[in-house]
Amino acid sequence: MSVDIGGRLRHLRLAQKLSQRELAKRAGVTNSTISLIESNASNPSVGALKRILDGIPIGLAEFFAFEPERPVRAFYAAEDLVEIGKGKISYRQVGDTLVGRSLQILKECYQPGADTGKVPLVHEGEEGGIVLSGRLEVTVDDERRILGPGDAYCFDSRRPHRFRCVGPVACEVISACTPPTF
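Given the sequence above, the corresponding structure tokens read:
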């Protein structure tokens, strides 16, 4: 597990309305030292970090215990999508956390024959999706449809449902559910 020491230090310094120069002066280090640590270009020793934190002031335990608030992002590159699936089903989620969000968006990929399981899924909320490529068998209650590119589904997620890729090619889907399920 890696800790973003630089990001935490920057967050605390700005919360105290301190410039890098002022914090450096209080800690007895150069302002370039603070800059290098905040950009994660330098990893301070425990002793150096303690001296810097004394300038804020905050203890080492408190420094490592808190999680700085991350700004809510609006845009995500393809490589920023977070894989939360496994095996023959890929679920690539928009955003690394859903804390405070009421919508989950996924880019799903089902390999040929992939199935969400014999036991139907049931959960609170609503979900919908659009098939981009391949063929996806969607079962909701006792109703079953095979959807192809451009076809879509939308239903109350409390209804038992299941997904299965049919055909010789992978099936890609863009889906959304509210509230987040995974």
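The chain has five helices and nine strands. Try to locate this feature in the token string yourself.
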